[in-house]
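Contributing: when you submit paired examples, paste them exactly as shown. First protein:
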Amino acid sequence: MIITVEGIDGAGKNTLVRAVREQVEADVLAFPRYDDSVPAQLAAEALHGRMGDLTDSAYAMATLFALDRHGAKEQLEAYVGSDRVIILDRYVASNAAYSAARLRDDAVIDWVHDLEFGRLGLPKPDLQVLLATPPATASQRARSREAADASRARDAYERDADLQERTFEAYRRLAQRQWAGRWLVTTDPATILQEIT
């Protein structure tokens, strides 16, 4: 199974992934892969203001994040049709939600679907979990994380509270549509474990 955990910055994705992993024998992979992927590293540079006007283009940023995932395609395909489980901390839906929020237009959602699942051939997830953490709570967590750890400086997306609100609403629309597969909206690890079982 490929299970994705989705949500805005500070929603608690990492915490939830760890909680589920303790109960299920699963591998974990987080996107973006900043340590291993040149496209992810370029996106990070852009989000911290070191790539000129690159962040001005939602399509350019979405393409960098898509290419990061494409770099893990072979690794992900090993879980398709197997008895192994991988939990992904963010996946394709994050590109769709953030792009729709940035452009204020859901038409880009179909473009992301075609790019990542079509042209790049990434496997679709078996289950997508949206963490239903309210944006105000998530924002406070992101600020606290930054204050406690200088290496966790918030990027341009994380500092934009309005963008985070719009992204959360875009995620909710994706979940309502059951976009690219099954969705579960929760903050409860037990509910996720029950669904996996």
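Second protein:
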Amino acid sequence: MADARKKVTTIDPLWRRLCDEAEEAIRLEPLVGAMVHSALLHHSTLERALAHRFAMKLSSPEMSEQVLRDLADEAYAADPDLGGAARADLMAVYERDPACHKFIQPILFFKGYQAVQAYRIGHWLWRMGRKEMSYFVQMRISEVFGVDIHPAAKLGRGLMIDHAHSIVIGETAVVGDNVSMLHSVTLGGTGKEDGDRHPKIADGVLIGAGAKVLGNIQVGQCSRIAAGSVVLEEVPRNTTVAGVPARVVGKAGCAQPALTMDQILKLD
């Protein structure tokens, strides 16, 4: 296993960085050695490490760790984009979360990152027509991480969910690339209507803590939704909305609010 890992790290710089950080973590704190070996150093690729983490976290008396590990390995082998999205998400957390100082932290400790990677496997199952299994994955993500993402929802790459407590994303929601959101965000419907009923979040949007975006509405590219807002109408691109109900209160404040994570409203 060590030889295989060394071969892969020569062509995967991120995986090499993760392995180096894992070895340093064990040197600094030997008590985490067994966990870090099991989660990272025992595996030959990032995909295999994520499959192991998926199985460890989501297994239960109803579904064994081995079954879930085989399922995740199948997903990563069948769809290389899952590994690409996992890398983009990892970079997003490392670059945008000031509490993240090492690449190993999201994989080992951050439930937002782990929940999103588990969702991605559930979404793959949904696309393969294996809906009952995808519902099981959704249920376990909700129970383990407190994050409820319908497996049919479409989430782009470079997603960062900070703290990730009480996140709800509905069935027909679409989230673009390089989006950032904080805890207690809801992308929900407005009632019992069926069909396309959830928000469409464009690339580069920043959604503050506790914000609720409801209904089949568009949130424009690189806009900001202030913490605690209730958004019921479409949001123009590069603007900031705030309030209950939310209204446009100014420009987005910068070209890429989701990357800068600037949540301060500078009103004229």
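If you have annotations for the second protein, write them as plain sentences, like these:
DSSP finds ten helices and 15 strands in the chain.
The mean pLDDT is 94.
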